[in-house]
Amino acid sequence: MLIAVVVVLLILVAYPLALVLLKSFSTGEIFSWENYFKIFTSRLNYIALFNTLYVGVAVTFLATLIGVTIAWLVTRTDIVGKSIIRNLIVLTFITPAYIEAIAWIQLLGRSGYINNLFRNFFNMKAPLIKLYSLEGIIFIMGIHLYPLVFLATSNVLYATDPLLEDAATLSGSRGFKMLTTITLPLALPSILSAAILVFIQTISCFGVAAVIGLPAGKYLLTTRVYTALSHYDVNIACAVSVILIIFAGIALFAYRMLLRKKRYIVTTSRTQLPTPIKLGKWKIPIALILFVFLSITVLLPLASIFLSSFLKTWGIPLSLKNLSLKNYGAVLFKEAVTARAFRNSSIFAAVAATAAIFIGFISSYFSIRTRIAGRRILDFLVTLPLAIPGPVLATAMILSFINLYNTPWIIIIAYTVAFAPYAVRNVSGALQKIDPALEEIGWMSGSSWIRTIKDIIFPLIKSGVFIGWILVFLIAIREIPLSTMLYTQGTETVGTLLFSLGFETGGLEVVSTIAVIVMGITIIGYLIIEPLGKIKWGD
User: Fold this and answer.
1) Which pTM was predicted?
2) Which residues pair with 312 in a beta bridge?
3) In CATH, what number does 1-28+322-539 get?
4) Cα distances (Å, whole numbers) of residue 272 to 34, 80, 158, 276, 457
């Protein structure tokens, strides 16, 4: 079984990436560095490289600053409304970045609600805020990804032994000094690992970079891969992909090294936190600032999407005459392409989730429960896609499985490869909680390995398996870059509709309707799996 899964992953992961690497050195039938020479001598390419690093670093800084600050306020002070704050941040986290980008286009685009408000009130000719820029990408991705840092920081602060900070307080440390000498140093490995994960997510981002950057002519490496493939320049697309994989791979390696060094954080079985820092007269003002920030960054975009989904026509003044439920009827029942897209996405996501869970279980079981040679190769192959941006993986799938290009299977395979790491994280977490002695008892009783798995292991980890399946399904059903680059007529998905309509001002009311439905599915899925255990949305 182990050998079979390793062979499957070699075919689905290693082989496609090897083809991308070989193709990046290809110029017809000649092996050379010409493609890389073109990249670094072409202004468009090296500007895309600079833009990627600029956006990645800026988003990482912004997300870390916001995430750590709010996490400290929630876990270490007497600020009011902690549960509301956490729930709003989780809502930000589960909202797809691309939907957030569409919402901000509706608010801050050239004809957005806020820009129109200022234009009409102050008689301004130009928009107050220019969203279509690198800074626009940084703003949206920073707001979308800071919950990663918040969750990582708050979780480790909750787990840190409160005696350490209590002792510092008794020794005379207060406020900023205790924060910089005790609290943050203890949480630093978690903060840094979350920051690196933010960087990986940012440089791998395609949807936001495309819908915000391309209209302004601002390219990142992910959008450069997309446009190169659009012009059938496969060799350049592969060379850019290799560079992107190198950046993401270095960041992922650093992330894993930091995870290994988190052991010096002191945890305890005690449940109480250190005595909360009293904010005094700043308690209400800080809470108000935080709730205003969350209202603007979480509730306002979602309200914009929800309102726009009822518009008959985007762009004309808001009025009761311009509101209708017809968009929902058209999307769900009348328009053949949208109905087909939802059906395709549901089927593709369900099949990919099932395959990902199977691969995730085999990988997790052999990595955790055995010492068989080759288990580390299996673990490496199944987690490698974390370092592969969507456009790069799509390129690899096209090169490897061109015969499947006009079928749903190429999308399903891409989904399975891309999202198997999420299944691994949830299944392995469940497996680690099970005492190996239970399996040994089954074997001593004469049970085969398969029966032991069926009668003992699976019943104990079924909640982790269920969480992993739902999680992969939710991520896949709203996925954009893979679907956009791999679909053909008849295999449209929800992601392809969101992406194509997102560039059309006249389609914003329809894309808002689709976005509301996707958000509804996401929230329902989250409410189902959240009570079952800690959800591992990322590695």
Assistant:
1) 0.84
2) none
3) 1.10.3720.10
4) 61, 18, 9, 10, 34
